[in-house]
Each structure stands twice: as C-alpha cells, then as structure tokens.
Specification:
Layout: H1 2-20, H2 25-49, H3 52-72, E1 79-83, E2 89-93
C-alpha cells in the first residue's frame, strides 16, 4: 500500500514538472488535462476494478483523454488581413 502511494506521488510530481516545462498554451493545457485525466482515471479504475491493473489502465486512459481534451479546448488566435503602404497584404493576429 505504501509503495502504491509513493508511486502515485512520484508520477504526479513528474507529470506536474513536465507540464510546467511546456512552452505554448496548447502544450500547457494538454499537460494539465493529462494530469487531471490520469488522476480521475486512476480513481475510476480503482473503483471499478478494485486492483492495481485497473488503476493503471484507468490512469493511462484518463491521461490520454485529458490530453486530447486539453489540446482541443485551446482557444485559437484570430487572424486579420492588413494592407501595407505598398499595397501588399499580410496576415497577422488581430
């Protein structure tokens, strides 16, 4: 039981440190989603299966789903078209 708690704490700290190193907002949201998803998935796996295998499978599935949701919900910047003084048109964030 103690080794399981130690493993959960170690994996949580590792995931948090990796999420902190992300450079873009999309990567940060994916990391946070993976962390939250892994926690929820581990809890659900333990509640449903009641053994270590179910907990690990639930954590993995939750991490994947959480990362996908975090990536998909990142707001995208709006782009506008501008005209330079020479008449050429360029696109840049509004």
């Amino acid at each position: 039981m103690r080794s399981r708690k130690l493993a959960v704490v170690a994996s949580t700290l590792l995931a948090m440190s990796l999420a902190g190193c992300a450079t873009s907002e999309q990567q940060q949201r994916a990391g946070t989603g993976a962390l939250v998803g892994a926690g929820v998935g581990a809890l659900a796996g333990q509640a449903i299966g009641g053994n270590t295998k179910s907990t690990v499978v639930g954590a993995g599935a939750g991490a994947l789903l959480g990362a996908a949701v975090g990536t998909a919900t990142t707001p995208r910047p709006q782009y506008c078209q501008y005209r330079r003084s020479d008449g050429s048109i360029y696109t840049a964030p509004c």
